[in-house]
Write a structure and sequence with these properties.
Elements: E1 2-6, H1 10-22, E2 26-30, H2 33-43, E3 47-51, H3 59-68, E4 76-81, H4 87-93, E5 97-100, H5 105-195, E6 199-203, E7 209-212, H6 214-220, H7 224-227, H8 242-255, E8 257-265, E9 271-282, E10 288-297, H9 299-313, H10 323-340, E11 343-351, H11 354-361, H12 363-380, E12 386-391, E13 394-402, H13 407-421, E14 424-426, E15 429-431, E16 435-442, H14 449-465, E17 471-473, H15 476-497, E18 501-510, E19 516-526, E20 532-533, H16 535-545, H17 548-568, E21 574-578, H18 581-584, H19 589-600, E22 607-612, H20 613-618, H21 620-631, E23 636-642, H22 649-654, E24 659-662, H23 664-669, H24 674-689, E25 693-696, H25 702-710, E26 715-716, H26 727-746
Helix pairs in contact: 2-3, 3-4, 11-12, 12-13, 15-16, 17-19
The structure holds ligand C2E.
């Protein structure tokens, strides 16, 4: 046992240390109180034998100190003393016994043995108690563990059971919900079956009807009772052949469904279109259980569809195919003609006087006219041909199966022209329309829509240019010209903007006296690259493209300005300008002329306007109105190219004009051609009778002059006097004009009539 032996005497230490050591103890020696406390803390001896009298402090103090420090609180202290009177102090301090130093060593050892025995017994006891406690604890622990396991097991079982219950509860709820849902579905299905607008037929596998809904009865007219037991084929309309039904059932049986349009018969005998879906219902072993037919009455849809198609593809006014259907048919014709290696023709038809009718008689008259035209055109073609209206007065025809010679096309075109030349009675008036036709042929004039129609259009313009009432077949040559025209058109636009144009003047001489009385202003165009383009080429382009407005203004302004200049130089002349039909029929013409004359400060009597008789005939009423307006401004009016048109003398009387111009075509051949001589003479006598002045143009020779003089012509114009001159040359001409005129007359042979 570890024993702390404390004594300040080394000999005592040695002696007792040895004694104890010999008894098998482990002895720790300390000489003082402090050392004893330190060593005791370090070794924790169960027994300390302490000397009572030590210099630093006595054994009682050490005992207290030992018992007070936690590390040595259980150390038993045996006091070792010389003195006998310290028993009380020692025991009070906590020592368990006292051994006197003078006791024999055996006693000392016995007393120590008794204490160590006690200590050991106590320790043993404690160990046993601790072991018992430990066993108890372990048993308790085991019991606790068992209890815990049981608890956990119980809890697990409870949780499992709860989960099972929750699961079955959920399944129960789902089942309830499913059933409720199924019931709702059933109720809904029944409601849908009863209330849907679509008819429903349910049959057994043999096709016998086992149920129908109210919509079926409403559409077909059969009650539920009448329908049950019947077969859907009992309601057939007879519009479809057996093949149709065979295909339908084939699809039902092979694919399980069919959808399409079917015509059936109602109970009242009326047949009607329906959109039908048939579905097969099979059982779990894939055997047919039912057929379900669902259909709706589409008679109204069909009517709307037809109406829409009519609107989309037909012109509402004439009921003819419109541009879209025309295109469709033409595309189809390309396909068909290629397949059959056949030819076909496209004709573009332009009405001559549609605009006039529209403007003068109003739009409803115009509409009526278009309807008449449509009817007449349809009367000229076969059922396989197409007549279409593309818009406005643009009509087209597709003539199919044209033979190699194209004679049939020419024949139809001629027939159309004749038909359209016949009068039409519209709003109580007799109207003559007339037309021009351009024709292009597949395949030689184009193998696609754009080319073929463009070429028919080009040919139509050519027909118009050749004079109304013509039909023209397209040729490549035309195409080249059309392209040239297009180029010219854009050049002309720039030329007007850049003032590349100029005005030349051709003198007009008085017959008697040979005086210069006026001049005709003629437009001239020399392009930047020096090419001279004659007015006969560019004026028609200007007319068609609307450029004639600015062009006419330019010529009138120049003519008025130059005439005023010469007036100011002391030459009171009359300048004549040509007007195109478009300008002449412009209701604002009088105001435009007013503005130009005012700007130039030229009085109206020095201004003359030349218009052709065909222009006046285009819109007689408007022409008369404009002429009166111009006359009121003292402006002279001349009818150009007289004799070339077809105006009747009765019309001529209505026009408030001053002058007739004999066209140079007649003057040219006179006096050799007796017919022309007769015409010239007739014009002059008509003019005289109507108190009109006559100007002859194109006078090149003295013989012509003599003839005109003989028949009483008033004024002359032609190369015999002068070609059209530019402003400077004309100013020069002015100076000698009168002498020149007189000379021409002097050279003439004596008049046939003067003798
Ligand atoms: N062979 C021959 N020809 C003669 C003779 N005397 C005059 N001419 C030509 O005959 C045409 C007379 O003009 P038009 O009949 O009014 O015919 C004019 C007129 O209709 C039109 N034109 C010319 N300038 C204008 C214009 O400013 N406005 C409009 N709207 N048309 C115009 O162009 C047509 C042709 O004009 P131009 O080429 O200048 O041709 C002019 C003139 O140069 C002659 O002795 N022999």
């Amino acid at each position: 046992m570890k024993i702390l032996f404390v004594d300040d005497m080394t000999t005592v230490q040695m002696l007792y240390g040895q004694l104890l050591y010999d008894q098998g103890h482990q002895v720790i020696l300390a000489s003082s109180l402090t050392e004893a406390l330190t060593l005791a803390r370090e070794h924790r001896p169960p027994l300390a034998i302490v000397d009572f009298h030590m210099p630093e402090g006595n054994g009682a103090e050490l005992t207290r100190a030992l018992l007070a420090q936690p590390e040595t609180a259980n150390t038993l202290v045996l006091m070792h003393s010389q003195a006998r009177d310290v028993v009380k102090q020692s025991l009070e301090a906590g020592a368990i016994d006292l051994i006197y130093k003078d006791d024999p060593h055996e006693v000392f050892l016995m007393r120590v043995a008794a204490v160590t025995h006690f200590i050991q017994t106590q320790a043993e006891q404690q160990r046993r108690e601790a072991a018992a406690r430990k066993r108890e604890m372990e048993a308790l622990e085991r019991a606790r563990a068992v209890e815990e396991r049981a608890r956990v097991e119980l809890e697990e079982r409870v949780a499992e059971r709860t989960a099972e219950l929750t699961q079955s509860n959920r399944q129960l709820t789902e089942e309830i919900e499913k059933r409720a849902h199924a019931e709702t579905n059933l109720r809904l299905a029944h409601m849908v079956f009863q209330n849907t607008a679509e008819a429903i037929i349910l049959t057994d596998p043999t096709g016998a009807i086992i149920d129908v809904n109210p919509a079926f009865s409403a559409i077909s007219g059969y009650t539920r009772e009448e329908a049950i037991g019947a077969n859907p084929r009992d309601f057939k309309s007879g519009r479809h052949d057996d093949n149709f039904y065979a295909k339908m059932w084939n699809s039902v049986l092979s694919k399980g469904h069919w959808q399409g349009e079917v015509w059936d018969r109602r109970k009242n005998g009326e047949i009607y279109p329906k959109r039908l879906t048939i579905n097969v219902v099979r059982d779990a072993s894939n055997r047919i259980e039912h057929f379900v037919g669902i259909f709706s009455d589409i008679s109204e849809d069909k009517a709307t569809e037809m109406k829409l198609e009519q609107l989309a593809y037909y012109d509402p006014l004439t009921q003819l195919p419109n541009r879209m259907l025309f295109r469709d048919r033409l595309e189809h014709e390309f396909y068909s003609a290629r397949r059959h290696k056949s030819r076909f023709a496209v004709c573009f038809i332009d009405l001559d006087r549609f605009k006039q009718v529209n403007d003068t008689l109003g739009h409803s008259a115009g509409d009526e006219l278009l309807q008449h035209v449509a009817q007449r055109l349809e009367g000229c073609v076969r059922a396989t041909d197409t007549v279409a209206r593309l818009g406005g007065d643009e009509f087209t025809m597709i003539l199919t199966e044209v033979g190699v010679s194209s004679d049939s096309v020419a024949h139809v075109a001629e027939k159309v022209l004749i038909e359209l030349q016949k009068p039409m009675h519209i709003k109580g008036q007799e109207i003559f329309v007339g037309a021009s036709i351009g024709i292009s042929l597949f395949p030689e004039n184009g193998e696609d829509f754009d080319t073929l129609t463009k070429n028919a259009d080009v040919a139509m313009y050519q027909a118009k240019a050749r004079g109304r009432g013509n039909f023209v077949f397209f040729s490549e040559d035309m195409n080249t010209r059309a392209r040239e025209r297009l180029m010219l058109e854009s050049k002309l636009k720039k030329a007007i903007e850049n003032e590349e144009l100029s005005v030349f003047y051709q003198p007009k001489m008085e017959m008697y006296g040979g005086r210069l009385v006026g001049m005709e202003a003629l437009a001239r165009w020399v392009t930047r690259d020096g090419e001279e383009i004659p007015p006969t080429r560019f004026i028609p382009i200007a007319e068609e493209t609307g450029l004639v407005g600015p062009l006419g203004d330019f010529v009138m302004r120049r003519a008025a300005r130059d005439c005023k200049r010469w007036l100011d130089m002391g030459h009171p002349l009359r300048v004549a300008v040509n007007l195109s039909a478009r300008e002449f029929l412009d209701p604002l013409l009088p105001e435009r002329v007013d503005a130009i004359l005012a700007e130039a400060q030229l009085p109206g009597e020095h201004f003359e306007i030349e218009i052709t008789e065909s222009m006046m005939m285009q819109d007689v009423e408007q022409a008369v109105h404009v002429l009166q307006e111009l006359r009121a401004r003292n402006i002279t009016i001349a009818m150009d190219d007289f004799g070339t048109g077809y105006s009747s003398l009765s019309y001529l009387k209505q026009f408030p004009i001053h002058t007739l111009k004999i066209d140079r075509a007649f003057v040219k051949e006179a006096p050799d051609d007796p017919n022309d001589v007769a015409i010239v003479a007739a014009v002059l006598s008509v003019a005289r009778a109507m108190d009109l002045k006559v100007v002859a143009e194109g006078v090149e020779e003295s013989r012509q002059l003599a003839l005109l003089r003989d028949h009483g012509c008033d004024e002359l114009q032609g190369y015999l006097y002068a070609k059209p001159l530019n402003t400077d040359d004309f100013t020069q001409f002015l100076l000698h004009a009168n002498a020149h005129g007189a000379r021409q007359l002097q050279n003439l042979p004596a008049s046939r009539f003067s003798a």
